[in-house]
Each structure stands twice: as C-alpha cells, then as structure tokens.
Design goal:
The complex is a heterodimer of chains A (541) and B (348). Chain A has 541 residues and is mainly alpha-helical. Helix content of chain A is 75%, strand content 0%. Chain A has two domains: 31-256 and 278-302, MetI-like fold (Orthogonal Bundle); 316-541, MetI-like (MetI-like fold, Orthogonal Bundle), CATH 1.10.3720. Chain A has helices at 2-12, 32-39, 41-74, 80-92, 95-106, 113-120, 123-149, 151-159, 164-193, 196-204, 210-219, 225-250, 273-301, 317-324, 329-356, 363-376, 380-391, 394-398, 407-431, 435-443, 448-476, 480-485, 493-502, 506-538. Chain A is globular. With 348 residues, chain B is of the alpha/beta class. Chain B folds into two domains: 34-139 and 261-304, D-Maltodextrin-Binding Protein, domain 2; 141-259 and 323-347, Periplasmic binding protein-like II (D-Maltodextrin-Binding Protein, domain 2). Chain B contains 13 helices and eleven strands. In chain B, strands 1, 2, 3, 4, 10 and 11 form a six-stranded mixed β-sheet that branches. Chain B has a five-stranded mixed β-sheet with strand order 7-6-8-5-9. Residues 1-34 of chain B have low confidence and may be disordered. The chains are: A mainly alpha (541), B alpha/beta (348). At the A-B interface, helix 10, helix 11, helix 15, helix 17 and helix 19 of A face helix 1, strand 1, strand 2, helix 3 and helix 4 of B.
Chain lengths: 541, 348
C-alpha cells in the first residue's frame, strides 16, 4: 500500500495544493490546476476522447477476448496449445514495442503506409490496435470463468432444448458476466493509462488522449504539475466510476465460478467452421503480434527506410552497432535483473495478500482492490513524478532512506505497477481453490505444511508463475517511469532503446529492440517449460 | 482489522528497508560540499551526451553519472526535484526552458569558464548576460529539405513563402509542434520574422496548399525520402544527416533566415558537486570537449551542429545561412497559446 498509495497521493494532491512540494512548501489550496484543465480545450477534448476510446475498446476487446477464450476452452480447435501460447505472447509483449512497431509500419515509407495507413491512422484504427493488444485480459478472465463452469450447465441447457446461440444468451453470458465485466474494466483502465499508442498512433491521427495531454502539461515550461495532476484525478475518477458500475452490475455474486466437483467441459465440435476458426485466430495473431514484430525487424535490417526493398538496401550492420553501443546490452542485463527482483517481490506480496484475505471480503480488502485497480489508470510518467516528490525529501537521507536515484526505487516502482495484477490474480486463484479439498485434508489430519505442499501449491503454482512472468515482462521494457527514475549512469533497456530512436539511429534502435525481445522470449519460454515440468511432477495424477 | 492494516504496512516497510540495505548502488552520503570534484550527476537530452561523459571521465578521472532522456521528461524531473536537486549539470536544446529555469533562480549565475574565450561572435550572441547557461553549439530549428528526384532545379524554393508555390500542392510536410521538440521554436521564429498575424496567415496558407503534419523528424524525413511529400521543413541536423547518408535529399536555408536552436548547458545553483560541474562545463567548451560532440558514430545527427566556438570546424557547411535569434522569454510566454492555436487551426 505504501508503494501504491503514497506516490499517488504525492502527485494527485498537487492538483489542489500546487505548492505541496514547492520551495517553500505549503498546504495552500488552489483551484488553478483544475482551472487550467477546464480552460484548456485540448485537455477537455482529450478527456472525452480517452473516455470514448476506453469504452469502445473495452467492449470490442472483451468481445474478442471472450471469443478467443471460447475457442480455446470449448471448441475442438486445432493447434490449441500454440494459440494459447500466442495469447500469452500478446499479453506479455510490452505495449511500448507494439506501439513502436505499429508506428514504424504506418510512418510514411513504412511497409503499410499506403495500404492500411490511412484507415488505421484514425480513432477507429487506434481502437483496433489497442483491442488487438489488450484482448488477452478478457480471454484470461473468461477462460477461468469457463473452466469453473462445469459441463452440467451446458448439458442441462441442451437437454432443455436450447441450441447454440440460446445456450450462450441464456446460460453462458449471464454466468460469465462477472468475468466479462472484470476483463472489460481492466481493459478500460489500461486504455486510459496507455501512453505508447497515445504518443504514437493517436497523435499521428490527431486524436488527442489524456495521457498525451498530461505529458504535454509536464513538458510545457514551467512544468505544470498541478494541471497534470488534475488530469490524472480525472482518469482516476473515471476508473472509480467504472468500478462502481461494475459492482452494481455484478452485485454480490462474486467472481468465483468454481464449485467443487464438476464434470470437465466437453469440447464442442466446430465441424466445417473448424478451419475458418483456426485461420481467423491465426490472422488475429498475425496482425496483432506479427505486424509490429515484422515491421520492427525490417527497420533493423534496412539501410534507407524510404528506398524500398532491395538486396542492396539490406544490412546487418545495425546489429553490430546494437551490440557495441555503450549501454545497449548492459542496459538489457540490468533490466533483466531489476525485473526479476520486482517480479519475485511482487509475487511474494500478492501471495501474502491472497492468504490473508482468503474467504472473507472485508471493507479493507475491497478498498485495496479499488485502489489497486484505480492505480492501473494512472500513467507511468505521473507515478514516476510522484515517486520523485515522495522519495527525494531531504529528511529521508538523514534516516538512510534516500532511495531516489537508486535501483531500489526503480524496483519499488515496478512492484507498484505489477501489484494490481498480482493481487487480483493471486486472490482470485485462491478463492477458486475448492474449499472442500482443504477441509478434507485437515480432517484427515494433514499438517499445514502438507496441505500447502500437496493441495495449495500444486494448484496455484501455474497462476503464480503467470504473475511472475507478467510482472517480469512488464518491468523489462517499462519506459515512462524508468525514464524519470533510473539511476544516473545505469539506463534500463527501454531507456537505452529510446535513446537510439531519438538520435535518429532508427536501425540501431530497432536492432536493439529485436535482440532484447528475443532475449526476453527465451527467458519466458525457458521458465514456462521449467514450470510445466515442476507442476507435472507435483500434481498427483 | 487494524492488525491487518498494521501488518500490511509493516511488511511493506520492512521490505523497503531490506531492499534499501541490499541495493546495488549504496545511498550517497548527502550533499557534502567538497572542494575536490568527485562525482558529476549529469542530466541530458543530447545525442552526444554519452560520448561526452565517457571522454570527460577519461580525461579528468571524475566519475560521471549520466541520465539521458528526452527534453520533456528531463524538465519534469528537474522540476520534481526542486526541493532537493540531485543534478550538477543539465544539457538540452532550446533556450526557452533555460531562461525560465534562470528566472526561478535554479541556475548558477556569474560563472565564466576559462574556455569561454573560445566563443565566436555567434556563440557570444547566444550567451545570456548573467552567464546562467552556455551555448555549446546550434542547429536551425527548421530549414527546407527537398527530394532531389521530385523537385527540378527551377522549382527549388529559396524563401519560406516559396513553399506556397502550387507546384508543392499537397506535398509539403512538417512536424507537429505539440509533439516534436524543435518544431515550436521553428513556428515561433517564423512568427517573430513575419509578425504573429502574418505568421499565422502563412501557416494557414500552407495548410491550403496541402501541408501535411507528421509526428517527429523521423516521420517527416521518411515521407520526404519515399516521395509522399516533395518538400519539408524540420530541424536541419536531421535533414543534413539524411543527405550525408546518401538519401536523395538536399537542404536549402531560406534567405529570409532560420531560427537558431542552441544547445545549452547549465550548472545547478545548488549543485551537489559544484567543482565537478564547473570543470565539466569548462571542458565541454574546450577543444577536446567540442571535438567529442562531433563524434557522429556515437551521437548520430546531433553531431551536425553549427559550432559556436572557434576551436572546431563544422562537420557540414551551411552555405548562405541567415540566423535569427528568437527571444526565448517571449517565445516561452506564448508557447501554450500558440501550440494550441497551431493544433486547432493547422493540424486539424
């Protein structure tokens, strides 16, 4: 909580108290921040745009995610495991890379400038790109909802004469509603805080978004923290509203769909749609993942982007440059280390949290849930500024806590961005653990250690690894906060890559991106394989 | 309930302390103003900053800790640190923000590095009377670049208003001043040259002639190289870099003048290591420091600046350039209003 709430307060309070961290500091209240926002047509327009984009993306991405979840869980889709892996690849791919890949593609002279460029450089295009990136959130919530359902409900529906769509309309969608809304809410918050696409595609499409307006307020000089803070308050308020709506819609039903023993789901035959579905899904990944990847790769091997494709226009020299630039590979190594530390600590906190709140939903746990979800919507650059305000207090040095400018603060920042997901995923996995199993083991005289080792850990370990990977991959390429907080002289991977793009060394930047992505992919694959092995050994089947 | 709160807070705090203990960079022992320079904390948005830091460390033995980022985050970081500044030296393009930092008493005034004697008259014209910041080189915020395959010699523009030629209809490009750092100075410079209302009319006329707005130098350059546009105006170092790397691009300096976009370096008024800061600024303006800025392999297009000292020769010549020095305070005061005007009237 200290990690998330205090930095948020440090910046959000400045919307009303602009001199909170001034010289001299004061608690003077002022409406100037909100006034500036209200008077700035760009800020207002961007607020409305962000809201509309958030809602539209939440709907489209949730529908897309639910469809993918259904295909993966309930249909006899070919190559299911490959597709399930690809959903994870989309999920773990850092949005900064996706945004960069798309803008390399769509920039004039890029691969697709003429063909799709015009269509994608529009509000709808921005929504499509974001949906392609964010749908896995809905896939995962819906998938875990579906897995908990049990085949009985579907069979019961069919026996009563319900056919295809009716089963969906009358049984699946109502039962999955909490999962659908939970996925949609996270997507909504993610869209609001997205900076990668807001700064690239959306700007090129002249579609101002709040995160970009915040950046502009920070960039204008003198830096307008109070206006930036006021706009962040707006984002926070939007997410709070959405959460209230969620609670209204879901009521007290809760998220758990798993009710102890049930028949495993039977896969429905897709029949002649099987090939179509597989192709459709393949196309989805080809666009969502393949396009940005290919465009980044092409930029890394092309001498002149404008000169088109010819053998003479190809080069691998950028890779040589990428390896030899100071702070290329070493920045990546540093990021791997920091991300691993952050992921491990975040996971530990998430697990502790989930154990302490098992079975009860106290007002405190609800409050924490609200705050954590809300914090998703706060852009990284704002959170980063909050960290500086908070951790650069002169008195902290006296007590040995001057963490600002150290890798420790960076790790704390990564933990804060990962915690909302860690807590959510860990505690939802925990609530879905069948209560009966634990009580039965206890009755049979099993020690706590045995219950943990035989029942809890084997069932939860896959979720825990997912949390670890999620936080890890997010932190390796985290950009906005790292840029403000990285210790002088020790740039992180994303900072080093961006530096290349800024000094117009686009080939070198793209080559670094490709190398770093490959490195990250190798780490993730190795760990997944390791986990698959460990769980197989631990599960007594 | 209370117990649980305490527990959560306690765990997190304990964790932070443990983390603090085993962090890889040990907490520095405050800002002890020492006479011997030890460690330079250096925030920069320049392409050549890394090369400069390495060379300075090698030459003097003073340890350099560089934070490289774009100008926006750099300024946000400096402002967020206002209560307890950590930096010794900052270095970025554009004197508007520097003038504003100076107005807020955040920069060291009155220091004259011994190497300031190297300044040319161009350099001296960019040096503020209170010596709060020092120009280290300059580029043009915008010059005209054209695609040599698409623009015959007879149609090559020589002034800004030549861009209104129907020959360029629908094929003119520039960056968005709300996104691209060097573009606002270009707009402000044209406003100063032509007068504000004339300047606004000029951009609206350009829009009528089919002006296309791209995000940054890179995007505009690509459009120019692949023929989406025939002519463009953006930062001249990026234009010259394209020309040098063999693209079919040529650069024209309009005879009515181009806006100076100086790179400025400044010392923190409360620099933790003042001695190191002074030594660094002195070194940057020396022959060795200036030469390092021209290491194009390390620094990219930023190395193609116009020198403001007599100790180095430019990597590229700028034939016939007429420089215009825009008043940074005047430009800064209007930045928000004019960027908004541009967004509403030209971009959309």
């Amino acid at each position: 909580m200290v990690l998330v709430v205090l930095p948020l307060c440090a910046i959000l309070l400045q919307s009303a108290m602009p001199s909170l961290f001034g010289v001299p500091a004061s608690l003077r209240l002022s409406g100037a921040g909100f006034g500036a926002m209200a008077a700035d047509p760009y800020a207002l327009q961007s607020g409305l745009d962000s809201l509309a984009l958030g809602l539209a993306t939440a709907v489209v991405a949730t529908a897309l995610g639910a469809l993918v979840a259904w295909l993966l869980t309930l249909a006899d889709l070919p190559a299911r495991r490959l597709y399930a892996g690809l959903v994870w690849a989309v999920f773990l791919a850092p949005s900064f890379l996706i945004g960069q890949g798309w803008s390399l593609l769509l920039s004039p002279g890029g691969l697709g400038a003429g063909v799709v460029g015009g269509a994608l450089l529009s509000p709808v295009g921005v929504m499509v790109v974001l949906s392609l990136k964010l749908f896995p959130f809905a896939t995962f919530t819906v998938q875990s909802g579906l897995e908990g359902l049990g085949d009985e409900v579907i069979q019961a529906g069919r026996i009563s004469g319900a056919r295809g769509l009716t089963v969906w309309r009358r049984i699946l969608i109502p039962l999955l509603l909490p999962a659908l809304i939970a996925g949609g809410l996270i997507i909504f918050a993610e869209v609001l805080s997205d900076f990668g696409v807001a700064a690239t595609l959306a700007q090129s499409a002249n579609f101002p978004l709040t995160t970009y307006a915040i950046y502009a307020a920070l960039e204008s000089f003198p830096t307008n923290f109070s206006e930036a803070a006021a706009m962040s308050v707006l984002l926070v308020a939007l997410v709070m509203l959405a959460q209230t709506a969620q609670r209204r819609a879901v009521g007290r039903r809760g998220f758990a769909t798993r009710w102890g023993g049930h028949k495993p789901l039977a896969r429905r035959l897709l029949g002649r749609w099987r090939g179509t579905a597989a192709c459709g899904l393949g196309l989805l990944f080809a666009i969502g993942l393949g396009v940005p990847a290919v465009s980044t790769f092409l930029s890394s091997v092309t001498v002149h982007m404008g000169a088109g494709f010819a053998l003479t226009n190809l080069t691998f020299s950028f890779y040589q440059a990428a390896i030899s630039v100071p702070y290329g590979m070493s920045a990546f190594a540093l990021s791997l280390g920091l991300a691993a530390a952050a992921a491990s600590l975040t996971l530990a906190l998430g697990i502790l949290q989930s154990f302490s709140w098992r079975r009860q939903s106290s007002p405190l746990s609800r409050l924490v849930d609200i705050i954590l979800t809300t914090s998703i919507a706060v852009p990284g650059i704002v959170l980063g500024a909050g960290y500086i305000f908070l951790w650069n207090q002169p008195w902290l040095a006296a007590v040995g806590l001057d963490l600002y400018g150290t890798t420790v603060l960076l790790v704390l920042g990564y933990i804060a961005t990962g915690l909302p997901y860690a807590v959510r995923l860990a505690s939802s996995a925990m609530t879905q653990l069948p209560e009966g199993q634990v009580s039965a083991a206890r009755l049979a005289g099993a020690s706590t250690r045995k219950v943990l080792g035989r029942i809890v850990i084997p069932q939860l370990a896959p979720t825990w690894l997912r949390i670890w990977l999620l936080v890890f991959a997010g932190a390796v390429f985290e950009l906005p906060m790292s840029m403000l907080l990285y210790p002088p002289g020790q740039p992180t991977a994303a900072v080093a890559i961006l530096h290349q793009f800024h000094s117009m060394q686009i080939g070198t930047g793209a080559a670094l991106t490709v190398l770093a992505t490959l490195g990250l992919g190798a780490v993730v694959l190795a760990l997944s394989a390791l986990l698959a092995r460990v769980t197989r050994r631990m599960t007594p089947r | 309930m209370t117990r649980r709160i305490l527990w959560t807070v306690g765990t997190t705090l304990a964790l932070s302390v443990i983390l603090a203990g085993c962090g890889s960079s040990p907490a520095t022992s405050g800002a002890s103003p020492s006479k011997t320079p030890q460690k330079l904390v250096f925030y920069s948005a320049q392409g050549y900053d890394q090369a400069e830091a390495t060379a300075f460390q090698k030459a003097t033995g003073i340890q350099v800790e560089l934070s490289d980022m774009s100008t926006g985050p750099l300024l946000a970081k400096v402002m967020a640190e206002k209560q307890n500044p950590q930096w010794d030296v900052i270095w970025f393009d554009g004197n508007g923000a520097m003038a504003s930092l100076d107005q807020q008493n955040m920069l060291l005034r009155g220091f004259t590095p011994s190497s300031a004697s190297n300044y040319t008259s161009l350099g001296l014209s960019l040096l503020p009377p209170d010596h709060a910041y020092f120009p280290t080189g300059t580029t043009a915020a915008g010059a005209i670049a054209y695609n040599t395959k698409l623009v015959p010699p007879s149609e090559v523009p020589h002034t800004w208003t030549d861009l209104l030629n129907p020959f360029f209809k629908g094929a003119i490009g520039m960056n968005n001043p709300a996104i691209s750092g060097p573009t606002y100075p270009l707009v402000a410079g044209i406003f100063q040259q032509m007068g504000v209302s004339q300047g606004m009319a000029f951009f609206q006329a350009l829009k009528k002639n089919g002006l296309q707005i791209f995000a940054t130098n890179g995007n505009t350059l690509q459009a120019l190289e692949n023929g989406t546009i025939k002519v463009a105006m953006f930062q001249d170092s990026a234009e010259l870099n394209a020309k040098l790397s063999g693209a079919s691009v040529s650069v024209v300096y309009p005879s009515d003048g181009v806006t100076l976009l100086p790179s400025d370096i400044a010392i923190n008024a409360k620099a933790p290591d003042m001695a190191a800061a002074k030594e660094f600024v002195t070194w940057v303006l020396s022959k060795q420091g200036q030469k390092t800025m021209q290491d194009i392999q390390a620094a990219g297009s930023d190395s193609l600046f116009q020198p403001v000292t007599s100790v180095i020769q430019p990597l590229v010549t700028r034939p016939g350039v007429v420089w215009i020095n825009v008043n940074p305070v005047w430009a800064g005061d209007h930045q928000q209003a004019w960027t908004t005007w541009f967004t509403n009237n030209v971009v959309r």
